[in-house]
Amino acid sequence: MFVLQPLFGKLLLPLLGGTPAVWNSCMVFYQSILFLGYLYAHLLGTRLKTNHQIIVHLAVISLSFLALPVGLPENLIPPTKINPTFWLFSTLALAIGLPFFVLSTTAPLIQKWFAHVGHHDSHDPYFLYAASNTGSLVSLLSYPFLIEPNLGLNAQQSDWTLGYVGLCLLIAACGFALWKNLKHIAQFDRINAFEGDEKLKSNGSFPPFEGGQGGCALKLSLKTKFYWGALAFVPSSLLLGLTNFISTDIASVPLLWIIPLTVYLFSFVVVFSRWNDKSHAWFVRLQPIFLIPFVAYAFINPADLPYWMYLFFHVIAFFFAIMVCHGELAAQRPHSEHLTTYYLIMSFAGMLGGMFNTFVAPFVFNGIYEYPLMIIAALLLRPSLKKLSLSEIGIQLIDPFLLLVIGVGIYFSVSNLTDYFDGVVISLCVLTIAVYFLRQRVVAYAGLMGVIISAAMSLHHAESHTLMQERTFFGVMAVRESVLTDEKGHPETYHELFHGTTKHGAQRLIATESKTPLTYYSRPSPMGQLFKTFDAQNENWNIGVVGLGAGALACYAKPSQTWTLYEIDPLVVDIAKNPAYFSYLSQCAPNAVSEIGDARLSIQNKPDGTFDLLMMDAFSSDAVPTHLLTREAIELYFKKLKPNGILAFHITNRHLLLKKVVSIHAEQMHLAALIQEFKPQTDVPLIVATDWVVLAKNPEMLKPLQISQIGSWQKMPLYFDMPAWTDDFTNIVSIWK
């Protein structure tokens, strides 16, 4: 399962612009099929005799072979004007639905069968869940470090298909072994209750709870089932929330997404092992300690922290939250009589957690607020909550109110000594430390943490002067108003466009400067140099731009030129065309054509030899979607360029050495290539460092840039330490800075 997940995430990314939402939507699909598999295992194990279970399951396995070999259907075209989530679900169902369903039934069904074979551990088969998740963890980690660097996607698909057939043969062997043992099952069932309970009493595997003293199989109450559901719902929602929260800043590939999922699987390995009896109490004690720096810094201003520290805070908070929830869930596991019911509730709640993040949160919140919300929910599920009555919960709510009043008092005390925001920050930090002493009072502790996190996020929002913020399938877009000091020393407001935490453009608002391209596209920058160098011969150029941003590049347009702007997110087009936010397009290129959809799919429909200049400026937050950097993508671009056409690549990136990928393509495809890693030499506002590469089939086209005195264009450095990226093979580890 955990090789198939990143494999299909990678297959689907190119169709939807490389956005992190693809991975989260895939995760919800996997959780949904997992629930259906657990439901099937529950019904099979409780409604049918053992021999009938074996026959039915082998028939279902045989049916799943119709979906082999695994792969995407041909000629897939995703929707461009509506949210593609349901299209993604239907595609996954058609491509891998049946095999994934069979895989999802394996853990509960094999454990249920194992509980009836008379093995000395049959009374407590839950250790197999730890083994199952260990296998999942090894499989998941092998993908970026072993499978992806050594196998292309086609080889991965064929090898996975062979592995799946092997697994099905092993399941059939388990069924055969169980069938041979049927005559002993009846005798075993008669003695299992007695022997099992004696073993449980002697080794203390199960804590006493309403499911039965020592794990005896009694009827489960609705309260117990609801508690199990909450303990599974919150970590599932946290998993997707954290994935979305951190993967906006680095490449949209399985590598970074694997970190939260690895922690999630590891928690199951620990809590369903023999270690949980001792480790669970320690995780409950340590969680409040590790939350102090997380709350004090993580939500105030992430840009003030090194990225590794930012990532560390969030992963550690996530780790302790799910270890406490999953540890409590494992401690409450029932007698094996209720095994499939227990797993069914876990999978159903996990599916609901994923659906909340995918289908509810994007329509309710304009930012990724479900993530901090679930951090608070995880604190509410700390073990002592079970012991509280409604009146005790009400009394504990007084504490957050009193400390909030104290916090307001601290703010007014320090606000006279320092500025507004420093006062609020000091207040929040003091409250964060103070709330630690309420950790034994669960409702009070979680309530005040909620107040602090909400206040910290509100502070960051107020400090950024956000004019608009909306959330789509492709991420969170925001327009913010900031102030600079102009050349005469006067304050001047300007607008900025952000995708996640990365700036995607800016515009000064005064009439004399409103047509001046800024940030990565300024006139001193590589693109400004390119347009100035070719100013005498680009009068009738046909120009394509992949990635719209605020529309600053359009201010290099001439009335006689033809400009086509490619953008995958309709919201970005709406923002760039709204003069209340940015007026580059309306002032400089009102006749430019905007095409919505993935750039590769859109450009493919253009006649060959259309463009004189094609500028690749597509980013998902800080990263170029990898499918726009493959050899096949470069070949497509040059097919659509004229013989003397120029391809320009924006490769500015904080974490990835993208020039290595482009350099290898240029060398192998015999293209002329120049690079400029631009560093501004003046203090002119809103001109930033930026890296651009230009490529051409005809080296003569790039000579004017190379000999020009207005920039520092250099030949591309050569690299020989990795293979070229193709649609079949990419490896993000090899270009990490």
Characterization of the model:
The structure is a single chain. This protein has helices at 4-12, 20-47, 50-64, 85-114, 127-150, 153-180, 182-203, 222-246, 254-271, 276-297, 307-331, 339-364, 370-380, 390-396, 398-415, 420-435, 442-463, 526-533, 570-576, 584-588, 599-604, 631-640, 658-668, 703-707, and strands at residues 466-472, 475-485, 491-499, 502-508, 542-546, 562-567, 593-596, 611-616, 641-650, 672-678, 690-696, 714-715. It is of the alpha/beta class and 737 residues long. The chain folds into 3 domains: 4-356 and 364-387, Up-down Bundle (Growth Hormone, Chain: A), CATH 1.20.1250; 391-463, no CATH class; 522-735, 3-Layer(aba) Sandwich (Rossmann fold), CATH 3.40.50. Strand 1 (466-472) and strand 2 form a beta hairpin. Residues 199-216, 250-254 and 414-418 have low confidence and may be disordered.
What is the domain total for the residues?
A: 3
Number of helices: 24
Shape: globular
SS elements, strand count: 12
Structural class: alpha/beta
